[in-house]
Specification:
single chain, alpha/beta, Nucleotidyltransferase, domain 5, 2 domains, 8 helices
């Protein structure tokens, strides 16, 4: 990964950047550790997705060992070069490759260099990124948010509530909005997917409480589009009638694979950024600074489409500006926040 200033956020992919080739994505959650290779041109998994249960307690050594097992199974029998980019989504704020919060993972991770621990376990450099940010990158690049300008908010509703915020396609990193106060508690302890099951709530009652959380998000950020990911997103039809948001709501396209896809893309984009190390698996041109050979053969597209690769180890990215689809239609006005 490119050298970054101390305590810096993870590198953010340029809006509209397109890559090809393969990258390794890892997703560490409260219940499972998953990994797969990702085709960067299409956003599809190019290997089997391997999953193991998250160890308990989820200490750095235990999680790193599980990651090594999962990655070993993904790469088994494959001629994966040592320079292939690798990204790992983790449930917490990431600064300078270190976990600064640990709400859904063992507190032993605090201030530990996740990039060093995981990189040593799998024998290759790793980019660490917030898991919800990774899911958001996947949906903004290949899924429900592709081509959308304005303010887009992604929520992953699972063990907790992960959040990713995008403004005109650019990620605002580490927005841990699942921990905002709601009735004197962290919101995710009341309205996450795991909380719904723990509290024994039916879809109607849970949705009405979740709608209160969405109302808070709309008052703070006025999103033009809300994307729901995580376990409950596949059941949106069962509860969307009780949601009263101004912004339209869409389910995530890539569901439980989004964290893998986004982590893989972020890692590849990081090594492709001008000024980073010279890695021949991902070399990008920035918007407005020329095109790659692949781009010259075809006009830029708002979304990546499958195309043949020249070699398995070579990745030639192309950059395309996001489609100017405008802001999402506002369907219902919201009152202004109460005065302090």
């Amino acid at each position: 990964m490119a050298e970054r200033a101390k305590r810096d956020d993870p590198p953010v992919p340029e809006p509209g950047i397109r890559l090809s080739g393969e990258s390794l994505g890892i997703d560490v959650g409260g219940t499972g550790v998953k990994a797969a290779l990702v085709d960067l041109a299409t956003g599809e998994l190019s290997s089997e997705r391997i999953r193991e249960k998250t160890p308990h307690p989820a200490t750095p050594d235990a999680v790193a060992a599980t990651i090594a097992t999962v990655v070993g199974r993904v790469l088994e029998g494959r001629d994966a070069p040592a320079t292939i980019p690798a990204g790992c989504g983790l449930p917490g704020v990431i600064k300078d490759g270190r976990l600064m919060t640990a709400a859904n993972i063992d507190s032993g991770w605090l201030e530990v260099s996740a990039e060093e621990v995981i990189g040593a376990a799998i024998g290759r450099p790793v980019l660490a990124i917030n898991d919800a940010d990774a899911a958001g990158i996947a949906e903004m690049t290949y899924g429900a948010g592709a081509g959308h300008l304005g303010t887009v908010l992604l929520l992953t509703i699972g063990t907790g509530i992960g959040t990713a915020l995008f403004i005109d396609g650019r990620l605002v990193p580490n927005m841990e909005l699942g921990h905002v106060e709601m009735r004197g508690k962290d919101a995710e302890t009341l309205v996450s997917g795991a909380s719904r099951e723990r509290r024994g709530l039916g879809w109607k009652r849970w949705a009405r409480e979740f709608d209160q959380y969405l109302d808070r998000m709309e008052r703070y950020f006025w999103p033009d589009l809300i994307i729901l990911g995580g376990g409950v997103s596949k059941d949106l039809a069962r509860y969307e009638r009780w949601l009263t948001t101004r912004a339209p709501i869409r389910p995530a396209v890539h569901l439980n694979a989004s964290g893998i896809i986004g982590a893989a893309f972020a890692a590849a984009a990081a090594v492709a950024t001008p000024g980073g190390p010279s890695v021949d698996t991902a070399v990008a041109t920035k918007p407005g600074r020329g095109r790659s050979t692949a781009t010259k053969r075809a006009a830029p597209r708002p979304r990546a489409t499958p195309r043949a690769r020249t070699t398995a180890a070579r990745a030639t990215p192309e950059v395309a500006a996001p489609a100017a689809t405008g802001r999402a239609k506002r369907t219902k006005p919201k009152p202004a926040p109460p005065q302090a």
